[in-house]
Fold these 2 entries.
Entry 1:
Amino acid sequence: MSTQEEAIVHEETHEHRDDIRSRMGMWLFLFSELLLFGGLFFMYSVYRFTHQQDFSIASKAMNTFFGTLNTVILLTSSLTMALSIVAMQKAKRGLSIFFQVVTILFGLTFMVNKVIEWSHEFKEGNFPGSEVLAAKPPGQILYFGLYYSMVGLHGLHVLVGMTVIGFMTVFTIRNKITPDNYVKLEAAGLYWHLVDIIWIFLFPLFYLIT
């Protein structure tokens, strides 16, 4: 085989990787997500300051049990996601797959709890556009508007995170994620941790107002 032919074979079989830039790109994306939610948190703070009593009254309609349960679920899911990465680093592929699946199940449980909680709020008429909410003071209307917008956006991020981790699980099964090449799984883990951190801020803002 000639030198030129060897070079062609090498190009075809060599997979170009730049883990440093991949990680940097992921951190930049996460920063943009923080800016998005940061703006929403700032808006919440302004309205909370101008309608303190109404926000406090409206928050009493929230189901603290479901909020606390979902907080525990997401915190535990962050642990299982981290364990999946550690397992991959130690070349325990089966264990990594197990923890990824468990993380997805935790995310699914979070969403089911949220649907149950929102179903109750809808029955009570505490949703934008309802006659019950329209009869309440402006501050309470703002509270529920922010609640559904911010928590709903967070729920969308949870769904995206579950989908991404699902793809990582398939990649792991197909040996596209290995102990020597797990940057994609690591990036998925970072995204999932961000989703959990955002919820840690949302939970006290909407459920624990006094």
Entry 2:
Amino acid sequence: MTTEWMIKGPEYTNCNCSYACPCQFSWPEPTHGFCEAFVAGLVEEGHCGDVDLAGVKWGMLLHWPGPIAEGNGTQQFIVDESASAEQREAMINIMTGKDTEPFATHFFVFNSTMSEVLDPVFAKIDLEIDIDKRIADISVEGIGTLKGRPIKDDVSGAEHRVRIDLPNGFEYRMAEVGKGECKSDGDIKLDLNNTYGQFCMLHMNGNGVIG
């Protein structure tokens, strides 16, 4: 039996590619030949079956040894320790692509490329994401930190604003681009600085992006 679900809320991603992440333009080769990322978000509105997900903070650590499409990835899910057992299970089901049409969400796509899914982490998550201002400050206790800021013009020093519009995207319809940095000392090690930062509003269900 399929469980109906929906989530809506801000998401921030920092990956190891340049500001123009090739994935967003369907270019198969990542900037450095491999992909890794730290992702985090907040469910402002949502449910999975009868389980209310409003207020749940979550994250993902991701690593692929080559392009995402070639697979052999490793991922680890993070859910805030304040979430109930039912909320934890529901979020992990969503992030693994359960009860989702094939390839309808980035969660499903990522999970389909994984060779190893590590045990989930339940830890305190402090999270602030402002999509319009391109600012994110996130920390996961015992794991690491994630940060996003606006890109600055090298000449004037003014903030440089760039958006990516994906009418048929499986993660978002519109994303703001910034520069990011992250540090993870968890099972998936990350140490990124001045790389691609993506700010977007997730609004999706088992059939894909809504709106």
